[in-house]
Design brief:
The protein has one domain: Nuclear Transport Factor 2, Chain: A, CATH 3.10.450. The chain contains five helices and twelve strands.
Length: about 210
């Protein structure tokens, strides 16, 4: 009975915990192998246009050395089941930048649904400890900051001149959207419910070709 109680009381991993496990696995089993391990069925990546990650990653071979990354900020929905993580990355060649990952927890497991980021000329400021920014649970959200459109087909995701997509947490306290221009430039925005309004809390401006 004690063992059953301890098992039931075990803390549920957070999106930050999962991001760190994801990054650690990239070093252990290979970069793209780790991406496949934590992927959601409908996850998207950018090459630079939007592609279904499950198709893009299917036959990719792991690079000799994986990129290293770690979360600095995590924007979390009120119910704790959706999160957007962001932080720095670095490669063995000395290049660096930032990443953004959208995570959703279903049946107790976190899966990533969006992966993006960009290179930077200068390093991001160091953050000693990953900071969690939780959406307000006060007040009833009148609606999502955005309304998810029907999912793109695999063909549309590869050929639409200006790809765009949106998503939201089940409790409507966290939402995001993205849009890719013809030259591959991409904008990604995150909104959180603050108890009386939605506020934009993250903005990624990814340079195109």
């Amino acid at each position: 009975m004690i063992a059953v109680f301890l098992l039931a009381a075990a803390p549920v991993p957070t999106a930050i915990d999962t991001e760190r496990a994801f990054a650690a696995d990239a070093q252990k089993i290979g970069q793209w192998s780790a991406f496949r391990k934590y992927i959601d069925r409908d996850a998207v990546m950018f090459t630079p246009q939007a592609v279904w990650a499950r198709d893009f990653l299917k036959d990719l071979k792991d690079p000799p050395k994986s990129v290293r990354w770690w979360p600095a900020h995590s924007f979390v929905s009120c119910d704790g089941r959706t999160a957007v993580n962001t932080g720095p990355w670095t490669r063995a060649d000395g290049s660096h930048g930032y990443f953004t990952t959208v995570w959703q927890r279903t049946a107790g497991k976190w899966r990533w649904v969006y992966d993006g980021g960009d290179g930077l000329k200068g390093r991001q400021p160091a953050v000693p400890k990953a900071q969690v920014h939780r959406s307000s649970c006060m007040g009833k959200a009148p609606g999502a900051p955005i309304i998810p459109p029907p999912p793109l087909t695999a063909s549309q995701a590869r050929t639409t001149p200006e790809d765009n997509g949106r998503g939201q947490s089940a409790d409507k306290t966290l939402g995001w959207d993205w849009k890719v221009a013809k030259n591959g430039a991409r904008v990604f925005r995150v909104y959180q419910w603050k108890g009386g309004r939605y506020a934009q809390v993250l903005y990624n401006d990814v340079h195109g070709q």
